[in-house]
Design a protein that fits this description.
Length: 72
Amino acid sequence: MSEKIKLDTEFITLGQFLKLADVIPSGGMAKWFLSEHEVVINGEQDQRRGRKLRAGDKIQIAGYGEFVISES
């Protein structure tokens, strides 16, 4: 089962998402986290913390679970 993360803006960056989803405690850890963990967005691996996520995007993080971006 995927955890839903609600957006109140058009998009959110991958770095902001990691903090919002409580995967990391602060946005400053995003670069390190992405270099150490495999993140798959809509079926393709992506390590760019500036990657824009929009409603409907599916994020899988090994050891952390699956997330779906939804509109608020």
